TrEMBL record:
Gene3D superfamilies: Glucose Permease (Domain IIA)
TM region(s), chain numbering: 7-31, 37-60
Keyword annotations from UniProtKB, A to Z: Kinase, Membrane, Phosphotransferase system, Sugar transport, Transferase, Transmembrane, Transmembrane helix, Transport
Principal location listed in the UniProt entry: cytoplasm
Protein name (Swiss-Prot/TrEMBL): PTS EIIA type-1 domain-containing protein
InterPro entries per the UniProt record, alphabetical: Dup_hybrid_motif, PTS_EIIA_1_perm, PTS_EIIA_component
Domain PTS EIIA type-1: 109-213
Molecular function per GO: kinase activity
Biological source species: Paenibacillus amylolyticus
Entry's Gene Ontology cellular component terms: cytoplasm
Amino acid sequence: MLLISGAIGGALIAILDVRISTFVFNSIFTIPNYTPALGYVIGIGSAFFAATILAFIFGIKEKEKENASNEKAQDNTTTPKKDQMVSSAVVEIFSPLKGEVVPLEKMDDPVFSTGAMGKGIGIEPTEGIVFSPFDGKVVDLFRTKHAIGLASDEGIEILIHIGIDTVKLKGKYFEAHVESGAVVKKGDKLVTFDVQGIKDAGFQTVTPVIIANTSDYLDVLPADSKQTNAGDQILTVIK
């Protein structure tokens, strides 16, 4: 840009036949020494004007390129990729029991069927073992051992309530293998229970698996399956 503008100014000075007859250092004070002085002013003025226009045109483009490069670099370092965003927005919850999947709304207890406790799913157990569905901790183990509350490392709270109205059994047919506050890993044994003994006592064993803090998430979706093994994906939490 400097060479181009200098060439323009020099060409105009040559065309206008600008001359000087004394040796001086160029400055605004030496302009009167040039003949014609107006031609010299036109020449250097054109050079300054051309430099300004060229700097404006090409300087803006360079600045835009620099900004675009900086934004791209920032995106690569700070913005998660689409697949990363999708994976971080969805959390799979695994079944704590083996058994038949029962839609929550079909359960006899309105506290669970209406979703008042949160969204989730029911499982009619074929084995009396409750496993941890994720890595986390035991928030609350009911004194009667028929229900247990867990919190995952990501903050998802889950309630596993073994049977309907089984609090009335006062702990009979249930055995806990953890305590409140215990840190657990996915697949750890939490509670065992006597499926047939509970049924013989006149109670249903269908077990609601509830996301207790459902309101913290966009949605909780049950898996499309009729049977489940412990460890199978059973719910999807949408952050």
